[in-house]
Amino acid sequence: MIHQESSLEEILAHVWGTLARGGADAKHPYHFPVLATSSGTDIHQRTVVLRHTNIGKRHLVCYSDVRTKKVHDLKLNPSAHWLFYDHQNKEQVRATTKATLHHQDEVSRQIWEQIAPQNRGDYLGSNAPGTKVEQYTSNLPEVFLHQPTVENTEAGWKNFCVIVSEVQAIDFLKLMKGGHLRSKLVWEGNQWHAHWIAP
Questions:
Q1: Is the pLDDT of residue 41 over 90?
Q2: Does pLDDT of 72 surpass 90?
Q3: How many CB atoms lie within 10 A of CB 190?
């Protein structure tokens, strides 16, 4: 539990611990963060699924259809910002990152093969996500709706992309009675540097 007497070292460990739980537990509030990207003229935000957190490598991982706006943005500008909020504990984490895209490579292939057929629908759409259509469509092939199998979902592999975001800085905020707490954690020179900032 973070409180006014917590040290910066305790906050750093707490932040990464909760991010790790968010990547592992679908019921954790950090499992569905907001990911913001920039096209150069506009900023775009969307909710994503935090699939994995690698503390040692400072990685936050999510998946995407390669045809989406976020992937297009990241190809132009790899800077990405993640926003996490835990309503119960009144804690916010904002992570500044640089993203690497894995599409049709060994990293994405290994992950793709671990995804159950019934969970591959997000990458099987005949229309790219965000495409204007004349009427409602699930954007899913009939064969997937009836009985997804490894074989009949393999076509989604060409659209599957893994986004690996390397964290460069974290802004941590905890709302508390008697005074909020806020700190900045920055990765510099192969180590974390932390300092307090005014909430």
A1: no
A2: yes
A3: 5
**Residue 101 pairs with which residues in a beta bridge?**
163
CA separation for the pair 13, 29 (Å, rounded):
18
Residue 157 bridge partners (DSSP): none
CB atoms within 10 A of CB 114: 7
- Compute φ and ψ for 139, nearest 5 degrees: 60, 30
Q: Would you place residue 40 in the very low, low, confident or very high pLDDT band (cuts 50, 70, 90)?
A: confident
Both tokens of 143, joined, read 């064969």
pLDDT at 143: 85
> Which whole number is the average pLDDT over 1-8?
92
Q: Are 79 and 95 in contact (CB under 8 A)?
A: no
> Under a CB-based contact definition with an 8 Å cutoff, are residues 128 and 65 in contact?
yes
Spatial neighbors of 69 by CB under 8 A, at least 6 apart, are 37, 39, 44, 129, 130
